Amino acid sequence: MRPSNGDSAATLLERGDIDFLIVPDSELSALHRSEELFRDEYVCVLWSENPLVGRTITLEQYLNLGHVGIRFGMRRYQSWDDKFLRGLGYLRRVEVTATNFTLMPQLLVGTSRIATMHRRLATYFQQYISLRILQLPMQVPPLIEKLQWHQYRNKDPGHLWFRNVLREEAQNAPQR
Length: 176
Fold this sequence. Notes:
With 176 residues, this protein is α+β, with helices and mostly antiparallel strands. It folds into two domains: 11-39 and 143-172, Periplasmic binding protein-like II (D-Maltodextrin-Binding Protein, domain 2), CATH 3.40.190; 42-134, Periplasmic binding protein-like II (D-Maltodextrin-Binding Protein, domain 2, 3-Layer(aba) Sandwich). Helix content is 26%, strand content 28%. It is built from five helices and nine strands. The chain has helices at 9-15, 59-64, 80-87, 119-126, 157-172, and strands at residues 20-24, 33-40, 42-47, 66-72, 77-78, 93-98, 114-118, 131-134, 143-149. Strands 3, 4, 5, 6, 7 and 8 form a six-stranded mixed sheet that branches. The longest helix has 16 residues, at 157-172. It is elongated, with a radius of gyration of 18 Å. The two termini are 24 Å apart. The mean pLDDT is 87.
């Protein structure tokens, strides 16, 4: 979760206001140690009764359907998929914006909107919300989620213990 005061998470880590970051590798600070927690793929998620999408989704459908997008923090940081799609020269129609990934699935129910999110999270929500998960209609780099901590705490026994707990949980989390 991004801080609400406008400071970047890396700034809070640098000041010692937070102990850990769990962020995509593109968001890491170059000043501190990190390690990979897990990799995941991005998928297209939609309400299971969405009448506009069949068993697969075409690139044209993906770009033309309404999206649930995401923006982080007070500064409304752009999401990876916005950056990625613009880099390919694609524009999509974002109809609703969520402030975190856990809100996205709920904004799909009863609509023809789609969203792009991590497979692990989409699969988790599929247990509680009537959703379908489809492959994206384009090749997308995987999500590489990393754990980062301040370099001065590298040998702190409490930090070592907690990093190990996080590592084990990430490795043992269900992957579907």
